[in-house]
Model the fold of this input.
Amino acid sequence: MSKPTAPTLAVLPAAASEASAAAPQILQPSGWPAPKGYANGMAAEGRLVVTGGVIGWDSQGHLAAGFVAQVRQTLRNILAILAEGGARPEHLVRLTWYVVDMEEYLANLKTLGQIYREVFGAHYPAMALVQVVRLVEEAARVEIEATAVVPR
Done:
């Protein structure tokens, strides 16, 4: 019986401007189609900065109206938390999105991509998207957890 072989991995710098050994690296198995808007995997060394589940409320605790507005505010909130930890968007290695309506997410992909690039630039870490029945904050439409690695 022959053993199955694992795909060969390609390790790419996260961005051309960050080709240093300290930058997160994109893990892309050879022969796999290139993902759009996310990475299949990331490798990084350094200090972890981790958020809890972040939703789209402002500093006064008011939740933005509607899915797209909540995503925009959620990403801004993550950016603020990263800054508190000495991290920037290019240090992100993982985002996990929880949405209450997958169709709402899919119907807004183009706008969401524009908002994402406005807030985080063209850095796309490993991501997962999960539909949930509801979030703790009942009016919340999206919640995102982020993990960043700040090079030492």
